[in-house]
Amino acid sequence: MHQSLRLSDAARSKIPLQSRRFAIAAASPSACLKERAIFMQNITRIPWTIDVLAPLLPVLYALLDPIRIPSLSSSLDGPGDVVRDSHVGLEMFCVTNSLRGILTVVRSKRVSFGAFSDIWKNVWPWLQFAETYHEILTVDLIADRYVQQALFIAVLGGNREAAKTMATDIVEICVFLGRAWAHLLQADARDNAAANTALMALPDCLQFWIEHPDWSRSAADGVIVGAGGSAADLASLALLHLNRFLPNRRSPLDHDRTTVALGSLISFIQSTNHEARPPFGLGFVDVLLEMGLVTSLTNLSRAVFDGSLPADVSNLSYYEYLLAFLRPCPRHQRVVEALRAGFLPTVLQAGIALPKCRALLFDCLSSVTTLHSSLSQIRASLGQIKDINEKARFIKESSPPFYKSWQDFMAVLKDRFQALDAYNAGRLNVPICCHNHECAGTFHKQEMKVCSGCTIAYYCSKACQQTDWLGGHRQFCTRLSWRSRVDCHPEHSPMTARNNSFLHTLLYWEFRSRQKEIALGYLRFMQNKPDKTPYMLFDFRHGACQIQIDEIEELDSALTPVAVEAVAKRGERILFNLARGSEYHDIIPRLFPPFVAGREFLAGLKTIAAGMPSGAGEEQLEECCPAVMRLMEGAPKIDAGDDME
């Protein structure tokens, strides 16, 4: 036993005179229950200041001697009710108040470092006892057991140096921490200062044990069991904790304490995403995301940038954490979730406060402007930005590079919104190309049937579908499906019908509005590579659409293995029109109208190129553009055959 816990002559002399006789009697190894109860009743009648409690530490420690637990347990396991006036009730009255007193002394940092281990050895068995018999011990004295016990574990077990000397069962501690967290969050105790203090300490305490050398999968399962039994229960607690301490009219803490509460929780959530050693398994972060982590982090961002919280919450690392969930492809569903929670108004503030995040901000936003769902939400979110012109002027003065990125983004949005309006109003009657390359006809969408397997291939007739199926589509249908594709990204999400349809419209929009640029690109290609076969690629990955025309032989390095194999086995006659967007890292062939570049187009293009003088300049190339544009408009159409069943 540490010297500071012994009731020596020097320790006795420090005890207040009016309590000294009762204290010495209660701390004696032979003390009876009556003597302990008299001492505690005497002490509880006076204010509990640290100056009163600190000298009583050896007495409080003695009253927590776990040697009495077996006899209490046998009493509780037997018949009969436990009431306040029974010997069990008196015993718990002494124990509960001893725990409170020691906790007060420990939290005031009036305990010697060497005494931590001895205190913990006496405290932990009583914490276990109260947890085991809390349903039987129906007295009010243990109603706040989770508050006391959580703080004990946080203070005693949270001292990293002291914890090294503690002999304890980490699995049992983790089970209890999960139960305490669930109880404190679910209880209506917003005005309970002790409960809020315990809640603030819990995430740090959990993180401490996660980093403990004895941490194991069993310990992780212990936290999950205590939280309710599933990873979803633990994730729900984490998000409930985060949302509870966000600033609002019912927020229980002031700004400084809210910062501490949120910062510790963010650190805990980040620690669960360690790829090398995920504390709660590989899928726990996915559960957090499914339950609304992006929304909660976005709400936190808004609170900070709106001035409701100090700007040093976890050093703003949570914002980088949020962007990490939004940026990698394909994450458009998460971007939409963040936009709905108010992400866009934070972009302007974050661009000033976090220079290293500027590129990430526009990467995650620009890359999803090809999708109907995210583009519609971006438009709605622009209305959430108050005084947008004033803020833009402020950005221009404080950060010209960021202002240019913002202006470029707004220019992309202006063009995409025009396409979105045309799509929503049905003003663009976009033709569809038959996927049967022997047919290669273009038709209106209502005349076509989509393949139910991959949802990419369209056919004008049942005969074309059957021909293309036997011609090779059966080998690639499933592998091209948005529902089953995992070769691009392990989290690849399906392309919805509306997003797929809008992307098709956007391709058509870009083609129609940039025909002269495309014609000029073909002419430059034929001038430099007259013997090669061109393809056209629409690249949407970086906001503004980039149109690339290059030789089809170079596609081996750009197309997916599936697409390369399809080209090789099916002996394509049609030149590729390709699209590259945020939903994939690779290139997917899309035979989109208004023309299908086949042999006739290539022959006509070569004829036009042959008529150009050698070394023709830009002006001469532009003079030939109308002929190429007429060639692109002249793709033949054929009538649809029998409707597919």
UniProtKB/TrEMBL annotation:
Task: Name the UniProt key words of this record, in alphabetical order.
Answer: Metal-binding, Zinc, Zinc-finger
User: Which range is the signal sequence, renumbered to this chain?
Assistant: none
Q: Name one GO molecular function term.
A: zinc ion binding
**One Pfam family for this entry, by name?**
zf-MYND
Q: Which residues form the MYND-type domain?
A: 439-477
Q: Which domain of life is it from?
A: Eukaryota
This protein's name: MYND-type domain-containing protein
